[in-house]
Amino acid sequence: MTDLVADTPLSIPDELASNSRQRDDTALIVHPQRLAVLFAPFTAVASWLIPGEAPINPGDYALRTRRVLKSTPLIDGHNDLPWLLRIELQNRIYDGRFDPTQRLLGHTDINRMKQGLMGGQFWSVHVHCDKAQKHFDDPSWLVRDTLEQIDVAKRFIAEYPDVFTYCTTPSCVRTAFKSGKISSMLGIEGGHQLGGSIASIRQAYDLGVRYITTTHNCDNAWATSASTVAAGGEDEGLTVFGAAYVREMNRLGMMLDLSHVSHQTMRDVLSITQAPIIFSHSGAFAVTPHLRNVPDDVLRSVRRNGGIVMAVFVNRFLNMKEPSAVTIHDVVDHIWHLADVAGWEHVGLGSDFSGTPHTPAGLEDVSKFPDLIELLMARGATDDQIRLLVGDNLLRVWADIQRRGEEIQAEGSRPVEDEWEGRKWHTHYRSSPYMYRSTRERAIREGWGEPNQFNVGKTGKHEQKIVKTDEDI
Ligand SMILES: [Zn+2]
């Protein structure tokens, strides 16, 4: 058999339907198998002409998988290893404390990433929601801890330059892949980790973070999380301030992640975003009605939006009723549904390895990605569809988001300065040399500034007399 057979859609997704109709007009693709027989001699000759491309049996899923993953980087959208560096090692990774070249417990180490033929990894820099916070605006150590997560993830990546390449652009991922490296990118898992602050988003971007999960398992200044709704709370969707968050993410060209948010938040964001969105680790709600999963109407919106849903491997999202019975086949079912409804151009892989204790039978760790690809092929996925799924979609979506940000900035759009309406500001600085008369007046009026600090008057000269009244200022 030939390359052509392997690449011929067995079931043509809607996304490709217009192309296939055009091809139907020329009666070229109606019966793929027959076509393969007719053209076999030519395609076989053609394949000999392409260096390194020999004809292969389309039923040889292992060989097809290896060939696809040799030419297209498999990029996983979500792995929580940096979180383990924090909770197990308190971020101390040197002097033999952490050695991912050895076989580790859990789901992730370098040898198994290589066995899994991985080409790229988004490392999640994650800190749990702070249960001690009664309100999301209460002081916490979340932003500090997030900075430390970014730091330790970067140090871990830098420690293995023969294996990993730190990347902040899609083109870097392609280049790293060509040189045999696993590109390594960063994503922050929740607005709580940035204190709900838009200025903090910009700084995270400058530090190299390329996606932000809008919420984790707690609401924040921007949006309602799926967990709130699962616990019986109202689904209030995106907040007014959340719209400003979307605006700044679009302007920065940063990937806005809708995994973990409530269904209304998904719909609200999709109705206003000016750029494609991502789901870094979510399943299909129609297959398993867990609120962490994506309902069909949202999948159709993602298709229109040009975004991507990266399929999660967490048991309880894959089968709520019997999480312990989940296998790799459940993941195939979820991916198939995501692709059916959103189109193969809008699916990806977002394992959540190292972030969950439970993984499906047959998909225990990062070494098992090829097994998943083989099963998808056995179900009828073409090589082209697999290329989209494993990495091409994510790189396209990322590049589109980046380009949209450049366009918005080229239009003269400035950094968003909005703050959450309930934000408290520290005003009690008794010795500030205020710039504005109105501040001095207010400091005196409200008693949070000492009047006698203002010993420089409006003439710019020192004045003996302590100023107390408006006229004196
Ligand atoms: Zn998560």
From TrEMBL:
<keyword id="KW-0224">Dipeptidase</keyword>
<feature type="region of interest" description="Disordered">
    <location>
        <begin position="450"/>
        <end position="473"/>
    </location>
</feature>
<keyword id="KW-0479">Metal-binding</keyword>
<protein>
    <recommendedName>
        <fullName>Dipeptidase</fullName>
        <ecNumber>3.4.13.19</ecNumber>
    </recommendedName>
</protein>
<comment type="similarity">
    <text>Belongs to the metallo-dependent hydrolases superfamily. Peptidase M19 family.</text>
</comment>
<dbReference type="GO" id="GO:0006508">
    <property type="term" value="P:proteolysis"/>
</dbReference>
<dbReference type="InterPro" id="IPR008257">
    <property type="entry name" value="Pept_M19"/>
</dbReference>
<feature type="compositionally biased region" description="Basic and acidic residues">
    <location>
        <begin position="460"/>
        <end position="473"/>
    </location>
</feature>
<dbReference type="GO" id="GO:0070573">
    <property type="term" value="F:metallodipeptidase activity"/>
</dbReference>
<keyword id="KW-0645">Protease</keyword>
<dbReference type="GO" id="GO:0046872">
    <property type="term" value="F:metal ion binding"/>
</dbReference>
<keyword id="KW-0862">Zinc</keyword>
<keyword id="KW-0378">Hydrolase</keyword>
<keyword id="KW-0482">Metalloprotease</keyword>
<dbReference type="InterPro" id="IPR032466">
    <property type="entry name" value="Metal_Hydrolase"/>
</dbReference>
<dbReference type="Pfam" id="PF01244">
    <property type="entry name" value="Peptidase_M19"/>
</dbReference>
